[in-house]
Write a structure and sequence with these properties.
The protein has 261 residues and is α/β, with parallel strands linked by helices. The chain has twelve helices and nine strands. The chain has a seven-stranded mixed sheet. Helix 3 crosses helix 4 and helix 10 runs antiparallel to helix 11. It is globular. The chain starts with 13 loop residues before the first helix and ends with a strand. It binds S-adenosylmethionine. The site of S-adenosylmethionine has 20 residues, from loops.
């Protein structure tokens, strides 16, 4: 990469791109959640490295999220024509752009300022600037009233770890959801944990691929984000790469709970 947001990175892969010298980018609230007590090293803590990516190279993250598209069945499954939707961990809007036409009012909470900026820019370009309010917020601290939304949703963001949701984050999503409304976790990664908390599971069938903009982009982004699949991507010589080749499960599923009336 070139340009102002691409300082020389020591390594290509996310797990070796950043060092402890980069940790100063976090706000105090972010550091208290994402940097382990006693300090963390993004070279041995890939989750921490991803949080740095969102803040140091947000456009690079957006290039990835833009090509890793959700299964259309997931989007179709979500309720439409609802009054209010709250999304948490909205990022650069992979799901938000789909939600914009489903709710009369949509609030997208995202802690990383650089991602909020990109999301606002994309919403404005799509003519959704007035319909979707982009705010700062964490799973465990949402600046929204109780019973606010008909649908409270997170996509590729919630995990059982306290820094990315956990018990407090799930309770907070349910607090913000009205009785009879739906809390949905899209592309969940801990099904048993969610099932134990009353969440049902839905998955949608069919082959799924990542459609990179070009073969060169497929190789470039695979080296950064899916290094184990990079050789296979090179050998295929195509801009279309099945998720299995990249070594990740496709975004074809969700876990949800309809809250008691
Ligand atoms: C993999 S990205 C997914 C973004 C977007 N939902 C998408 O599907 O492209 C994970 C997102 O979760 C956000 N995130 C991480 N920790 C969070 C927390 N404690 N509360 C809310 N959002 C969080 C990150 O800033 C990032 O935007």
């Amino acid at each position: 990469m070139t340009g102002p947001e691409a300082p020389a990175r020591p390594g290509r892969e996310v797990r070796s791109r950043y060092t402890t010298a980069d940790l100063g980018v976090f706000t105090r609230d972010e550091a208290s959640r994402f940097v382990p007590r006693g300090g963390g090293d993004p070279r041995s803590d890939v989750v921490l490295a991803w949080e740095l990516l969102y803040r140091l190279e947000p456009e690079l993250y957006d290039r990835l999220a833009s090509v890793e598209r959700l299964h259309p069945g997931v989007v179709d499954w979500l309720p439409r024509d609802v009054n209010r939707i709250a999304e948490v961990g909205a990022g650069t809007g992979r799901l938000t752009m789909e939600l914009a036409e489903r709710g009369r009012h949509v609030v997208a909470a995202e802690p990383a300022l650089p991602l909020r900026r990109i999301l606002r820019r994309k919403l404005a370009a799509a003519g959704h600037g007035n319909r979707v309010r982009v705010i700062h917020g964490f799973f465990d601290q949402l600046p929204l009233p109780a019973d606010f939304a008909d649908l409270v949703v997170a996509c590729s963001a919630f995990t059982p770890s306290p820094e990315h949701g956990g018990e407090a984050g799930l309770a907070e999503m349910e607090r913000v959801c009205r009785p009879g409304g739906c809390v949905a976790i899209i592309w969940p990664n801990h099904l048993g944990w969610l099932a134990a908390r009353g969440y049902e599971y839905v998955t949608f069938p069919g082959a799924m691929s990542v459609e990179f903009g070009s073969y060169a982009e497929a190789v470039e982004l695979a080296e950064i984000f899916y290094p184990k699949g990079a050789d296979a991507v090179r050998r295929r010589g195509s801009s279309t790469v099945p998720f299995e080749v990249l070594g990740i499960n496709p975004p074809r599923d969700l876990a949800y709970k309809v809250l008691a009336q």
